[in-house]
Structure of CzcB-like barrel-sandwich hybrid domain-containing protein:
Amino acid sequence: MSDDIISEEMQQLSDWLNTVCRMLSGVDSAALFKAEGSTGVIQCEWPETGALDDPARINAEEQVDLALAGNKTVVSYTGPDSQCIIAHPFVLSGGQQFVVVAIFADSNINPRNQISLLEWGVAWLRLLDRQHNQPQPQLNASASGLSSSPQFISKAADISVIGLVKSYRLSVLTVLILLALLFTLPVDKTVTAPVVMEGKVQRSLTVPVDSFIKRVAVKAGDRVKKGQLLVSLDDTELRLTLDQAVSDRAVADKKHRQALAKLDFSEASQYALDRDIATIDIRLIEQQLSRLELKAPISGQVISGDINRAVGSAVERGQTLFELAPVGDYRIILNVDETDIRYVQTGQQGEILLRGLGSQTHPIQIDIVSSIFSSEPGQRYYHAEAHLLSEPESRVRPGMEGSAHIVTGKQLLGAALFGPFYQWGREQLWKWWP
């Protein structure tokens, strides 16, 4: 294959990648890899050559290897609140295998919509590839003498220009028809919302009396058993009070016996009363001492509270030191945007992607759509509650965050792509119209 043909193919692939990236939503950079053996060699980059720095290139090459090994689309996240990487493999005529890699700066994008656009772009590239590989008519030997005449060259040039114009028009018409058909494809109507994992039951460990922290036995993230000692509060003052009460009881008991020996029953009765009062005081103080040892009310995991560096500091009655939740029993809290809450209903299903678990998704079902909301500057979110439909893996922890996609029905792809712009335009027109 000549260098001119290779250069032309590279330019066509670069133009195709540029067109596809302009259709994707929120793409930060992209690259096209050609399979050579079990790995991929980069062919072109977007928005410009060298768009992928070394860390991004290494991450992209890892996803390309995974996509080629499994021969399927790979969606991955490099870390919490990080980029989303989609690697989509495909094969052109002649068995050439490629992988297109798109890197999105926003980890909350909907991978399904982006993969649908990539699949459409690959179908378009295959159509262009088949047209490009169609055999061209060759001049026979009898016409070789005419090819050198000026009239023949002029006529051939005119025919070539006309053919290019017709081919261009046909390509444009084909693309428009494909777009029209694409926009009428039915797709799932999904609502995307940020989520956080919480324990289905959460218990707080609070301070019973004003005191000082003497010792901390656990930290946030530790697993504990019911009754396990978590925090010890300072008991110096109560110990002194207890010693005084024990001494008072011993004195009252001694004087009671002396009064009995003297047959002074009135005085003996008074000392007996003093002894009983001291005994009651001792029991009360011992109960207070037992309350200074704060133990786990349930078996589970400490999900909040980091007081290891607060040893010796004062704490007030009612102050929360730790929060605990049972392991494996979770609820999922969704913060649904006010523009989407009308579509979310109890019983709907979807899936969540937790950033701490990479690309693995978990099926969920909506249990409660609440009227409770939280506000941020310019936005308002309503809370919905869901549960996992599958057994959570051991790596799931309370407090993990991610994104949820809830399937609320069907809609046309055109409505999915341009519906938000249409809604925004209607709202602006309503505000402007008198």
